[in-house]
Amino acid sequence: xxxxxLFFTGGVVSxxxxxxxxxxxxxxxxxxxxxxxxxxxxxxxxxxxxxxxxYQHGEVYVLDDGAETDLDLGHYERFIDxxxxxxxxxxxxxxxxxxxxxxxxxxxxxxxxxVIPHITNEIKRRIGLVAKETxxxxxxxxxGGTVGDIESQPFLEALRQLRNEVGRENVFFIHxxxxxxxxxxxxxxxxxxxxxxxxxxxxxISPNMIIARSDYAITQDLTxxxxxxxxxxxxxxxPMVTSDVLYEVPxxxxxxxxxxxxxxxxxxxxxxxxxxxxWQRLVDNVRKPKPTIKIALVGKYVxxxxxxxxxxxxxxxxxxxxxxxxxxxxxxxxxxxxxxxWDIVQSxxxxxxxxxxxxxxxxxxxxxxRYAREKKIPYLGLCLGMQTMTIEFARNxxxxxxxxxxxxxxxxxxxxxxxxxxxxxxxxxGGTMRLGLYPCVLQKGTKAAAAYGVTQVDERHRHRFEFNxxxxxxxxxxxxxxxxxxPDGKLVEIAEIKDHPYMVASQFHPEFLSxxxxxxxxxxxxxxxxxERSGK
Length: 536
Ligand code: GLN
Prior knowledge:
The chain folds into two domains: 4-17 and 25-38 and 110-281, Rossmann fold (3-Layer(aba) Sandwich), CATH 3.40.50; 289-534, Class I glutamine amidotransferase (GATase) domain (Rossmann fold, 3-Layer(aba) Sandwich), CATH 3.40.50. The protein has 19 helices and 23 strands. Strand 8 and strand 9 form a beta hairpin. The termini are far apart. The site of glutamine has 10 residues, from strand 19. Glutamine is lined by residues 355-357, 383-384, 407, 462-465.
């Protein structure tokens, strides 16, 4: 079987939905019976986004195998409903690290190591790994950033080489661009698209398709003009106007004829008629007027909502399942410490405290947990949100006044959250946390077990600290239930407050496994109790 490659490049500006478009096309191809796989290439030098600030990069998306990856992988998993692995994301940092360590080992036998061919070979090898590992017949590869970026040059050169190596008939280039709108004249402009295609062609790549993104309606004379100037067939210039519903993109891609055009050009035969009806129903449901449920999201990177991409999507999935609209109130936890932002928390039907690192805003998160516990507001804590829930409980219910996590206070007399034993000697920051999928056994009769409806689950982790078991008995006597534990009974995975409608928190990150058609049970539980409480 020959692998077919779909390469996605970006033109004009980034952040116009290249990843979503790739994910949507992936879904329409899977619907046609093809085994698809996806890969994102990130030209930055970091080895992975795990050590980057969420302000710089947005969310770090974690896979089953513990890979810390770009948030676009979240789009791929949510749209295509597949489970990806480490090979699905790599960076310049990884490519160089690998090449340099080979050079140090003497693998190159005295040769001069250069971008071409050594770096480009390593890029091609890693692209090849996806089909090898997954057996996919169609591999969608998205190149981060926009053409013209200095750091993406070796990647584009590698794709150009690959085209000849695997055969032109097996490769299809899709260039995703942006048409700026000029208010003064009320028109969309194609010139930046023409320029970005010119740059692409100067490195030897002619796109087979151009997807032109815009916030405004795109007329046919514009797409015809793009076709003429960019040397692409008219029907391969696809206008893609921004949708108010993210999950409509697969329907738009389907309707625009993108998958049909691609499979014809790649000489593929579909084995199934795509059934997009579930997606149509989903989109119809999103658009249906529904009562609004307010969830206060008390985080520390709230200025950049991309930092909570999967949390936001998981809330939307859970809202749909409960036939409500979710309105997220973004609250900066540090504001709560200064008596600001409380109006949002007080008017909310539910409170969510997501993951995070470092001490800034911790006291605000603890205050939010106290408010939720005392006022019996539905609460969901994710990772750090579980840790702050237990710290609050220790301080205000168990009267352990200086209780804290040793992440924030090394001198605390009551480190109820502490470093795992295996973490003690670690000095390297990258890729050394407890990462990826771990099993969790649910205790019968608890809210968590009721939400899941099963006895054991596997969830994705990303943390260094854990609940300190020395305090377990004390907590249980005080009214906390450890409803999810690792199978050996050593690690607390889910904690909940007994005397409360729904105060549940997990050490893992449930948001990574929520899907539009399969909302995550813990989020559904939050939304359900928040809805009940609001009386809507
Ligand atoms: N900082 C905490 C830890 O390392 C929580 C991490 C998180 O929320 N992802 O354990």
